[in-house]
Each structure stands twice: as C-alpha cells, then as structure tokens.
User: Which sequence fits this backbone?
C-alpha cells in the first residue's frame, strides 16, 4: 500500500490554521526553509490586508491615510482581482460592502495559492519529493510531481457534522475550496440582498486555482442549491453543493451529473454494509 | 501507518463516526433489487416526496422551483432498473446482491450521463460514470476530470485513506478538533 512519508507543519495565521504538507523524502532543512518562507509571507499578507489591525495597508487606505500607489502593490492587485471576480460571477461575489472595499473573503484563498506556488511547488524539483500542498483553513492548493505515483485523496467535510466527511475527490494538481456557514456562523452575505445567504449549507469547488475555486464556492452558496446556472460560466470546475436538508448536487465542467437514482441505491446498500453501524440508530436532518 | 490512523481516530470519539457516516440516519435495510419506487421514496426520508410530481429524470438544467429539482424526489426511475446481475449474492448476510447497477441516464447538453456501481462480496467496490458522449476533445477532457464521490457510494475502506480535508473555514481553535488535525498528527 502506498504510504510515502509525510511532512507537516502547522501555523496559526489569519485566524485559522494553515498546514503545509510535503509527501515523499525531503531534506529537513529544505522543508523548514520553505515552510518558514511561506508562513512569513502569509503573515505579511495579513499585515497588509487585516481588517483587525489598525495599521494594515487596507485600513489606512480606507481611512485615506495611505494612497493606493503608496500601499503594498498587493492591494491594487487584489482590488483588481476582486472586481474581476464580481464581474465574472455576475455579482454573486463581491468585495465591496456599502461602498467599502473589504477583500477578506478573497485574500485567504489568493494568499494560500500565491505562497504555495512560490514556496511549495518548487520543492517538486527536489529528488524524492512526490507532492506538496497547503491547507488554509479547509481550502487547498495541491501539487504533484509529473509522473509520480500519487493522487491526493481529498475529503469534503459534512457541513452538518464537521467530524464526518461527506464525499471524496481525487486531485493531482489543483485546488479545492469549500464555503458555507462555518463554525463562525453564517458568514456569507448575499450581495444582492445584504442578508446571509440561505439554502445551501456548503459548496465545494475543485479547479486549477484556489483563488478561483474560492470565489466560485462563495458564489455557489450565494446562488443557492436550486440555482446551478452559474456552473457554465465558472470555467472547468468540478464540485458539489449541499442544501439545508442534506441533499447533494454535483457537476463536472458546467454539467450537472445526475446520479441520484444510484445515489439512493448506494445509500441503502451502504447502510447495510458497515458493521460498526447500528441499524437501529436513526438520526434525522 | 493505517493502524496509527485508526488509533488516533479511536481516541477522538466523534471521529470514529466518520466511518459510519450515512449509516446512522438511513435505516432502510432492503436489498436493492427488491426496492420499488414507493419504498425508496419513503426510506430516503425527508426531502422529496412532497415535490415529486412524477417528472422524468430531471437533469438539473432546469432549476425550477424548490424541491422538485432534487433528483432523489424523482421517483419515476427504478434505481435497480439497470441491474445486470442481481441474483448472485442474494444470500449474503448484507442482503446486497453482487453485480453491476446502473442508474438512470440524465440528459445534459453534452449528452447522457450515467453512473454505475459494482457490488462484490456485499460491498460497493467501484463507482463509475461510464456513459459520456465521446468523440471530441472537449468530451474527453470532461471524462478525465474527477467527480466527487459521496461516502455513501464508496466502500468503507476508502474512508480511511484521506490525505487532505476541505471544509468551510475553521478557526484556529476549530482546527484542533478537525479531521485535518487528526490526519496531520497521525502522519507527521
């Protein structure tokens, strides 16, 4: 059974846990240097964009104390990317709330992807390294060395019970982002109404880029369970959405895959298969 | 290594339930081949029955009103209709017959898409999405992309073989109780 060594480092940045993973054999100094550089850059991103730090570039620009041209170039880059995302999603995603620019919903995915590409992807050049990836509070950007016998087996958490998983998806190179009402509460606001988005418990989007996947996972939750009309506009993505009743819809590249008749059969079969399960236990959603 | 994972998971009581997901709240114990449309809608519980107006397999491109879009409410299709070999394992303790089961085909703009599961020894051993239109590069590209597979569709053994966990943002504190944390500790 394949089980190459795994090296993990975890840091607490931007209010969440960021873990860095390298699969295979890697020189400990190389690994330590890469993770340190990645975490340092994420902390720098946090200093620039934090809505909680009075001296962040973001807040200083917002207060008029700092001109955009004098701020970190990241601010303009992110502002432009957010405007593009708002346009691409037809307003399902926005970083402008009541006229105030707040890219908090964009920065984490953008920064995780950026730092992973800068500091983890190059590790694949090292002999022995099979794969590398980052998990930023549940959002992933993953890399695999060409030709390596490795696929990341990614679990998608059950939005109703975070200790369980709902689905799995294999990824070699790409990103997985999940949005929904987290433990922090319903934190996704529908820009169209100004109220918390309802109807979708969580949405997961798999695509090449974490910044892209993150935007569309948020857009999916805002659009809601009944509206998959956006999947044709999102580019090549795969994903699933879960509604408040636990129903699931899935899609591939803009096409919903209707597998539910078999889903149903599979669930009934599965309920018999597991010896650990007591068939008398019944939980309802 | 797998044993280590199990050991860690066993110490975190809630996580053990991971492997029994979908089992605890779905209590129908019926061989698939014996199911009828009516038992399936009742055993699947909650969601769909009120919305099931008997539409043909809806493919979701029409995202009409409310519950109707849930395909689990589309009771028109017999889930076992495509069973190709439904009697071989009829006597197994699980009540699950070996064979290959094919779901109803859903029409998409790329053509019909259909899923097939293979049951062997009372376990689901394979889940495939076999029916794709083929013939142009665009379609082949679609075929290569992986569809998320519900835990309910996989064998239990696969559940323990997780490398990374995606979920809505957790706080630093939440991470400590997370599945990802358990994996990180087990593998680090």
Assistant:
């Amino acid at each position: 059974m394949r089980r190459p060594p795994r090296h993990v480092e975890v840091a607490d940045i931007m209010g969440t846990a960021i873990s860095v993973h390298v699969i295979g054999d890697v020189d400990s100094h190389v690994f330590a240097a890469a993770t340190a550089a990645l975490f340092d850059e994420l902390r720098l991103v946090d200093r620039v964009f934090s809505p909680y730090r009075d001296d962040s570039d973001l807040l200083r620009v917002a207060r008029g104390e700092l001109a955009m041209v004098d701020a970190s170039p990241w601010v303009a880059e992110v502002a432009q990317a957010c405007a593009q995302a708002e346009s691409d999603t037809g307003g399902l995603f926005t970083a402008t709330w009541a006229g105030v620019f707040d890219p908090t919903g964009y920065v984490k995915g953008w920064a995780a992807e950026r730092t992973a590409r800068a500091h983890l992807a190059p590790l694949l050049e090292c002999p022995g390294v099979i794969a590398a990836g980052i998990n930023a509070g549940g959002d992933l950007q993953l890399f695999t060395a060409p030709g390596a016998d490795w696929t990341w087996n990614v679990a998608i958490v059950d939005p109703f019970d975070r200790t369980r998983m709902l689905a799995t998806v294999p990824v070699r190179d790409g990103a997985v982002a999940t949005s929904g009402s987290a433990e922090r509460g319903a934190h996704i606001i529908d820009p169209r109404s100004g109220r918390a988005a309802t109807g979708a418990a969580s949405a997961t989007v798999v695509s090449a880029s974490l910044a892209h996947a993150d935007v569309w996972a948020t857009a999916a939750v805002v659009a809601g369970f009944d509206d998959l009309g956006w999947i044709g506009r999102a580019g090549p993505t795969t994903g699933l959405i879960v509604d408040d009743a636990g129903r699931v819809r899935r899609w591939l590249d803009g096409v919903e895959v209707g597998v539910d008749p078999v889903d149903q059969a599979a669930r009934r079969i599965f309920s018999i298969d597991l010896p650990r399960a007591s068939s008398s236990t019944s939980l309802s959603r | 290594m797998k044993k280590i994972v199990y050991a860690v998971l066993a110490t975190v009581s809630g996580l053990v339930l991971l492997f029994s997901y979908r089992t605890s709240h779905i209590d129908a114990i019926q061989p698939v081949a014996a199911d009828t449309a009516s038992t399936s809608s009742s055993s699947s519980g909650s969601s769909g029955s009120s919305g099931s107006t008997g539409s043909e397999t809806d493919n979701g491109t029409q995202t009409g009103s409310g519950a109707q879009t849930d395909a689990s409410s589309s009771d028109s299709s017999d889930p076992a209709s495509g069973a190709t070999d439904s009697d071989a394992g009829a006597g197994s303790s699980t009540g699950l017959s070996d064979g290959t089961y094919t779901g109803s085909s859903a029409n998409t703009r790329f053509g019909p898409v259909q899923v097939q599961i293979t049951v062997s020894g009372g376990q689901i051993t394979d889940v495939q999405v076999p029916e794709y239109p083929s013939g142009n590069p665009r379609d082949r590209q679609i075929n290569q992309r992986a569809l998320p597979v519900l835990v309910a569709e996989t064998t239990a053994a696969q559940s323990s073989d997780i490398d990374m966990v995606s979920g809505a943002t957790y706080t630093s504190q939440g991470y400590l109780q997370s599945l990802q944390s358990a994996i990180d500790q087990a593998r680090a």
